[in-house]
């Protein structure tokens, strides 16, 4: 009876891990494609917010890759992976801040139409990722930190669309700069939260 129970639990755990792996591979592919799309569009349109969001997509792709690596490993490995995610979020914040500082001195106004079109596509892509990840957000710290990354993407995409609208109305680069600096703050705060959670998990492990 006990052996059957253990076997059943092991089968259920393996099934859950396969589901998690499938979801992570899907969102990894989506974010990798969107990183290239947004980066090229951000450079072409001189948009800080699009460029910043593309870096976020790259960071997320790395995050999902590390999550796949530790999906069959223990709590300690998953906590280390979450710590890496926190570091990637922080580096994204630094990169966006650096780009914002450059844009401020360059003074070029971004192309609102390109920002709107690509920002909308990115929003749809990230809504799909969030939907796929929500089911597994409470499975463990690995999936919890991944879900938080995806939630940040929705905030970033919405901000990009808002900035595009304001750029179009005002013909000014300031809305794009403001959103860029706001993304820096969001990334930095999320980084602190993930690092704190993963550090506690490491201490317990």
From TrEMBL:
The keyword Transmembrane helix applies. InterPro entries: Cation_efflux_TM, Cation_efflux_TMD_sf, CDF/SLC30A. The chain crosses the membrane at residues 23-43, 55-71, 83-102, 114-133. It is a multi-pass membrane protein. Pfam families: Cation_efflux. One of its GO terms (cellular component) is plasma membrane. Residues 24-202 form the Cation efflux protein transmembrane domain. GO terms for molecular function: zinc ion transmembrane transporter activity. Keywords: Membrane, Transmembrane, Transmembrane helix. It is found in: Membrane. This is Cobalt transporter.
